[in-house]
Amino acid sequence: MPAPTLTRYLLGVGRAPDQQDHARILSAVAVAMKITAAAVSRGPLIVQGHTKAPAPTASEYKRALRHSATDVLLSQVADLPELAAVSVAGRPHINQVSTGGRFLLLVDAMHGLGNLDDNLSVGATFSLLQLEPRQTEITAGDFCQPGSQQVCAGLVLFGPRTLLVLTTGAGVQGFTLDREVGNFVLTHPDMQIPGGAHVLTINASEAKFWPAPVRRFVDECLLGADGPRGHQYVMRWNASAVVGVFRMLNSGGIFLVPPTERPQTWLAPLLYTAAPMAFLAEQAGGTATTGTARLLDRVPTALDERVPMYLGETVEVERLIGYIDDHEKGLDAEVAYPLFHHRSLFID
After folding, report:
1. Distance in angstroms (rounded) separating the CA atoms of residues 6 and 297
2. 283-292: average pLDDT
């Protein structure tokens, strides 16, 4: 029996009377992601075609791709009566869709654009919230709901394969785009974060600016089998939360976005990245926190609010939370560095 397609899966979701509306919205989002996948695969040709010279600069190409991905998404959902409004990351304007609609869509249509310079993966995130239908215009405040109120959330990874990972609150399903038939096919059913993976995903270039509990956690991992963790860890980083979170869901470990003292530190946009990624993590059996509280309980105060984000295997996240608590109580432990020890491996 062939693996079910996303269309078939959404038809199953849509059989429940209270889920029919958001199944149609997710279908429209999936179509937009297929179109964007084709644009990503064309690279700079989306700007220059086959005749324009000179070739577009990297910034021109990335700007064109972001605009294209956003416009495609908005056009696909523009006539859905179930959808009240859309908020796109980086755009303060709320896109009103349908008066009386009872869902709100949050989208980062193109995440991690810097990876395109080196032909690496980029991604997208989306999240759906519910509200009471009304005839008035939707405002930013309507979107400022805690992540625990999400109806569904997901990520899309545009790489050698185009992957769509989705939760509707009943587990996590992963779909791969089959370009031969033009549909997403279920390839990662009922995803659960693997345990004991010993994978650490964090931006090591900011190590000197990490808060003490994060430095303690990472240092212990890097001491490898001779350290207090007793295991060899590998460290990975791809400058993309979408890539890092998919790796965590698929291969295990922990993904860390700590606050630092550096002014240009990247923190996770709460509504567009942190909340949907936390929803996926919890639905896949993991834990997600800001370091001081459950991430899905955080109530946004603005569309562009940003937060630290730690998510992954529960045992790893809870250990880090313990270190943060120790630090608050002044109980930090010094990490012992033996003269000789096995070093863990850094992987791009």
Report:
1. 29
2. 97
